[in-house]
C-alpha cells in the first residue's frame, strides 16, 4: 500500500472547553474519494479546518503529501486545494480575470488559451467575460473548484460542496471529483447526504459527536451493520441502505 496523501492522526480540536473533534484518525489515498459523513455539528468542518491549517488542533498530526502541516505549513498548503465560497471572489472582476489572478497568486503561469481550456473543461467557455454574480450557483461552484485546483494539488478538500445545488449541477460536480480521482488525486469531502456518499465516495468515515464511529466502503458498511438491532429498527424499505446504517449508528434525534 502506498503512503496516504492525507494522513490525520489522533486529531483533537476544541473551542474553549468544548471538544468538537475527538481522537480522529484516517488516511486518504491517491485515486480515492473519501467522504466524511455526519449529522449537523458532528465535527466535519472542524476536522477540515484543522487539515487546512485554519485552526490549530489541541493535539494530533496532519500530514499532506508527506509534509506535517505544523512543521511545513507552506509545503503542505502547496499540495492542497481548498474550495472557496463564491462570495470570496472579487465581484468586479470577470471570471477570466479571477482565474488569472488566482493563478498568479499560486505562481502558475496561465496564458489566455489555458484559461479558455480551463473554462471549457467545466463547460463555461462563454462565461469568461461574465462577473461571478452573473453565474448560477452550480456554475459558481465549478469556477470555484477550477480555481482551488489551479496549482494541480495532490489533495482536494471540499466542505459540503453540493449543498443547495440542483441535481444537474450536483452531477457535474461529482464528475469533477471523479476526474480528480481518476488522475490519481486524493479527494476529501464532507457531506450529510447519504446519497452523495453512496454515489461518489470510495470510502467513508461516519463521524458523530466528534468521533469516527465507522470507516469503510459504503458497501462494506452496509454489509457489516445490516444485522445490527439499531439498524434493523430504522430500516425503511426492507432492503438495508447506507441511510439506514447511518441513522442506526448516529440515532434518530434531529440535530440543531
Ligand atoms: N467557532 C466555534 N466556536 C464554538 N463552537 C464551535 C465553533 N465552530 C463549531 N463549533 C461547534 O463544534 C461542533 C462541530 O461543529 P462543525 O465542525 O461545524 O460540525 P459540522 O461541520 O459537522 O456540522 C458543533 O457542536 C459546533 O456548534
Ligand atoms: Mg460543516
UniProtKB/TrEMBL annotation:
GO terms for molecular function: ATP binding. It comes from the Bacteria. SUPFAM superfamilies: P-loop containing nucleoside triphosphate hydrolases (SSF52540). Keywords: ATP-binding, Nodulation, Nucleotide-binding, Transport. Residues 6-234 form the ABC transporter domain. InterPro entries: AAA+_ATPase, ABC_transporter-like_ATP-bd, ABC_transporter-like_CS, ABC_transporter_ATP-binding, P-loop_NTPase. PANTHER family: ABC TRANSPORTER ATP-BINDING PROTEIN, ABC TRANSPORTER ATP-BINDING PROTEIN NATA. Belongs to the ABC transporter superfamily. This is ABC transporter ATP-binding protein. It comes from Chitinophaga hostae.
